[in-house]
């Protein structure tokens, strides 16, 4: 599953072996890092820089006028439109996390109100009401990434009707590569995977994911420091280091999916 726009966007970059998705802001604040992009214009500038650094897609959490995460149509439409204008062709994804709105019915309804929909949304299977949110995205013609944080999440996905209708499965782990491998073992064959971690373990998970032939993710949402422990200047620097690590870690003659 996935929109034609997303497929065309990803294909254009994957032809150059780009396998890094940039997560630009998440729930981060400027107090955590001064370069966290909040407004639609800031997200657009960062998305363009991430694209130049090698990202094939971006994942963002739009904010309202008060800087609070939101699924409101005005903010989400503005963010998606600005990113597409600044980084033509890159695939754009939005979060549907319960941290934005704890009511799953409200989140599903919000998707239906978007007039400039993203290419994909991320849906966490650890959160109540995830199936309804996936259905809302499917009905709106939006691709879905399934966020899997545990073997239980992977089992839920395998028993659902959605496993082979995803853009990809996101293996999102706190502890390291072993945790990602345990989740991966439970996924149905043929489901594309993207591995990512959090904090300093981000880089360990990334290397292991690339070595296994999977896409990876990096950005200020996940990590604030470079592999050597220095604070990153921003998303573009994180992406550049991730691309370098991916190239070095990827298996020989790595084949990219269409």
Taken together, the total number of domains comes to 1
**Structural class per helix/strand content?**
alpha/beta
Order of helices and strands: HEHEHEHEHEHEHEHEH
Radius of gyration: 17 Å
The description of the largest β-sheet is: 8 strands, parallel, barrel
The fold-level CATH name is TIM Barrel
**What number is the mean pLDDT?**
92
Strand order of the largest sheet: 1-2-3-4-5-6-7-8
Number of helices: 9
- What name goes with the CATH superfamily? Aldolase class I
| CATH architecture assignment | Alpha-Beta Barrel
Helical content band: 25-40%
**Poorly predicted residue ranges:** 1-16, 254-258
Describe the structure in your own words.
By secondary structure, the protein is of the alpha/beta class. The chain has an eight-stranded parallel barrel with strand order 1-2-3-4-5-6-7-8, surrounded by eight helices. The protein is built from nine helices and eight strands. The chain has one domain: Alpha-Beta Barrel (TIM Barrel), CATH 3.20.20. It is globular, with a radius of gyration of 17 Å. The protein has helices at 4-14, 40-53, 73-86, 104-113, 130-139, 151-158, 177-184, 201-211, 235-249; strands at residues 20-23, 55-60, 91-95, 120-124, 143-148, 168-172, 193-196, 215-218.
């Amino acid at each position: 599953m996935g929109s034609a726009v997303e497929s065309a966007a990803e294909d254009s970059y994957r032809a150059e072996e780009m396998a890094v998705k940039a997560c630009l802001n998440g729930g981060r604040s400027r107090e955590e890092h001064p370069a966290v992009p909040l407004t639609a214009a800031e997200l657009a500038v960062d998305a363009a820089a991430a694209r130049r650094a090698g990202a094939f897609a971006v994942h963002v959490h739009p904010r309202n006028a008060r800087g609070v995460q939101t699924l409101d149509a005005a903010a989400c439409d503005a963010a998606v439109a600005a990113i597409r204008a600044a980084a033509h062709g890159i695939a754009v994804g939005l979060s549907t996390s319960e941290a934005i709105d704890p009511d799953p019915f409200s989140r599903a309804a919000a998707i239906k109100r978007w007039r400039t929909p993203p290419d994909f949304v991320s849906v966490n299977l650890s959160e109540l009401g995830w199936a309804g949110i996936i259905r809302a995205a499917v009905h709106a013609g939006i691709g879905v990434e399934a966020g899997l944080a545990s073997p239980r999440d992977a089992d839920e996905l395998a028993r659902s009707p959605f496993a082979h209708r995803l853009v990809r499965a996101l293996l999102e782990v706190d502890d390291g590569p072993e945790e990602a491998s345990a989740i991966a073992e439970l996924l149905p064959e043929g489901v594309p995977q993207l591995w990512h971690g959090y904090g300093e373990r981000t880089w360990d998970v990334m290397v292991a994911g690339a070595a296994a032939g999977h896409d990876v993710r990096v950005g200020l949402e996940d990590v604030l420091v470079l592999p050597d422990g220095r604070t990153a200047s921003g998303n573009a620097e994180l992406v550049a280091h991730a691309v370098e690590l991916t190239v070095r870690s990827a298996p020989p003659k790595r084949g990219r999916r269409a």
